[in-house]
Write a structure and sequence with these properties.
343 residues; alpha/beta; TIM Barrel; two-stranded antiparallel sheet; 20% strand
Amino acid sequence: MKLSLLLLVLIVGLIACSQTSRKADWISDALSSIQSKRYPRVKAVNYWHENWNNSSTDKAQLRLDSSPEALEAYKKGIADDIFLTKIKLSTNSLKILPSSSGVYHCAFPDFGGTEDSVTLKRITDFENLVAKNIAWVTFADNWVGGISFPKDEVELIWNSGHLPYIKMMAFSTHEYSNGGMDSIYDLVSIASGKFDDDLRKWADDAKESGVPMLVCFGVEVNGKWFPWNGKWNGGAAKGPSNFISAYRHVVDVFRQQGANNISWVYHVNATSNPDEPWNSIASYYPGDKYVDWIGVSVYGAQSNKEARQYWERFREIMDVAYPKLTALSANKPICVSEFGVTE
């Protein structure tokens, strides 16, 4: 009886160690593949440091402190000098430029489920945890309740010695996970100028701040989990073109207001859902004139179920996505705008 119990304890322990080392290995693979210049146009990485509940019994454990092994793997990889903490800026327009010698180290340092609870403590807690500073800080500008420049969050990030990466989330409710077009901020309405007064005010406030920042409109557009995906805004026939029109319109409004301190990001998911030709990474690209950086989300398993059914390494995902990203433009820098994996 005692021998059986001991064997059971050993088996459970081995399973637990195997699970934690898998995440550590995934992180090591991600950072080493970038460090080795396997993807030479990748000029920034942004870890997604957050946990969330998939269900009452299943949690996505992306935070780096989910296990000692995962944290050590990240700290060891990110300590390399190739990962930079200072941003290079254009002298005449405050645009954020890629470094010729390294890759910016950036993060979403767990600003909560709505991604906008920006505090200095959360930023410094992350930097202390990984023993390295970050160059830019990512957070969400949710349009729930209206469109307005997130002045307090931008000032806090800037005054703490970082640059803001702002994800414009064009939805009127946080309950978007079931799919469908947003009841207010559909792409046709945005492109037609319905919200131009608010967008101009956002642009004016951003310009007045004088803070260099990255702004992404329509994050992970090729994923049907967001209401700006083409599936909900015209389908295969018009969805991608409606997004391009909306994206270009937003950028045009900001440029007309002289908000030249904004670097615009076209941010896609590494894989498309639905996986159809019309919903590809290339289908939504607004063109080099409207894009400063190309961003991509690269996630491994995000639930216990996913981890049991398949386990793709970072480079297995990125090897497929990277040629698609470089094909969009001959020279735009690429950012791994989000990456992470569960335990």
